Amino acid sequence: MLKVFLSFLIFFTFAFATEEAKFVQTEYKKPFRVVYELFLDHPEKLRPALGWISNVIFVLTHPPYNFNLEDIDIVVVSHGRELEVFAKEHKDKYQDIVERLESLSQYGVKFKLCRIALTQLYGYSEKDLYPFVETVPSAITEIAYWQQMGYSLLIPMVFEIRR
């Protein structure tokens, strides 16, 4: 009896086994709301972190979803070393990143910078920043606010790959 049961079990295991992964088309709902927290340890890491934002916009605005930009609400709250990228005085050093930030803002992405970090750690004020950003009193309270408003929190992890 045990042999029959084991044979039966082995038969069904192989009968329903697949040779590859299965693609699942998740049904994303409108409106799609995300708040990104940026707290990076180096300004250059902003470049790959922006890929997280671009990815959401790309996936949702293309088939099969075809969301309008009005259906996607993205807020980025920044309070780490990446803040220096937002200062006009570093335009030449981070020109490609600034162009990407500005492009994302034209897609409706809102960039909110922690005023505490800007003023106390970097000595910047609003006049030092690009017009596509806003300052907020505190990154931490801002992130909590957007979560209370129903936004999903995403925190880009950018690792250095060393070989």
N-to-C span: 55 Å
Helicity range = 25-40%
Mean pLDDT: 92
Kindly report the CATH topology.
Answer: Hypothetical Protein Ychn, Chain: A
Q: Helix count, per DSSP?
A: 5
Strand residues, percent: 15-25%
Helices and strands: which structural class?
alpha/beta
What would CATH call the homologous superfamily?
DsrEFH-like
Uncertain spans: none
Count of DSSP strands = 5
Q: H/E order of the elements? A: HEHEHEHEHE
Question: Can you tell me the CATH class?
Answer: Alpha Beta
Count of discrete domains: 1
Give the overall form.
globular
- CATH architecture assignment: 3-Layer(aba) Sandwich
**Strand line-up across the major sheet:** 4-3-2-1-5
Sheet having the most strands: 5 strands, parallel
Radius of gyration: 22 Å
Question: How is the secondary structure organized here?
Answer:
Layout: H1 2-15, E1 32-38, H2 46-61, E2 72-78, H3 95-106, E3 110-114, H4 115-121, E4 133-136, H5 139-148, E5 152-154
Parallel strand pairs: 1-2, 1-5, 2-3, 3-4
Helix pairs in contact: 2-3
